[in-house]
């Protein structure tokens, strides 16, 4: 049984004070919900303060990125050793990292391996652009992202995959629940081809891309979708709480 997950990717938003207030407001609404994993991923500067605020909470903490080296002359970067013990999850391969910072499958694969070595759980993002979607290349692109990013990763790895069609991120244009379910089902088959069906059936695959309190119930009603990686809707306590509550109800 795959435990559903709602993970909030706050991106480059919130000051430290904002971050503390946001999780303080979220806690009472979701702490008692035990059939959904709740994860918040604030900016690096807020991780320590948010961790302190979440003491005793059922909400888990994640980072938004990391470098694949443990230390060195990489000004401005954060290593897996810096995150180890501070948070449990780390988002890797987000389309914004690919688009704006030139990250490739090879780089993301190094990050996944480094995260696992540091006992961090990757939330690996895959997804096609609008041009690729329009050209009918969704399956080819997503398969390439999955196989390239997971190259030489052991079948014992503890990881989460998030399907995020780039054309739906921050645009208000979410994939339909059937579209998302079909692609996530395809991803599960790709994972099964690499690791076997048992691993694939136990691996959580989330949907991300304009997930809101208005469409979460429809998305979560689909059998292949195990939760959401949420952007803008995770920046307001009431909407994040609603996402978790609705997911809890649908995935009972």
Helices and strands, with pairings:
Elements: E1 5-9, H1 16-30, E2 37-41, H2 47-53, E3 59-63, H3 80-83, E4 89-92, H4 95-101, H5 105-117, E5 121-126, H6 130-134, H7 138-149, E6 160-163, H8 177-195, H9 197-202, E7 205-207, H10 216-220, E8 227-230, H11 237-250
Parallel strand pairs: 1-2, 1-8, 2-3, 3-4, 4-5, 5-6, 6-7
Helix pairs in contact: 1-11, 5-7, 7-8
The proportion of residues forming helix, as a percent range, comes to: 40-55%
Catalogue the unreliable spans: none
| Structural class determined from secondary elements | alpha/beta
Give the DSSP E fraction (strand runs of 2 or more residues).
Answer: 5-15%
Overall CATH class: Alpha Beta
Number of folding domains?
1
- According to CATH, the fold-level topology is TIM Barrel
Rg: 17 Å
Q: What overall geometry do the principal axes of the alpha carbons give?
A: globular
At CATH level 2, the architecture is Alpha-Beta Barrel
Largest sheet, if any?
8 strands, parallel
**Alpha-carbon distance between the termini?**
11 Å
Kindly report the spatial arrangement of strands forming the biggest sheet: 7-6-5-4-3-2-1-8
Instruction: Indicate the mean pLDDT.
Output: 96
Question: In total, how many beta strands?
Answer: 8
CATH homologous superfamily label: Aldolase class I
Helix-strand topology string: EHEHEHEHHEHHEHHEHEH
Number of helical elements: 11
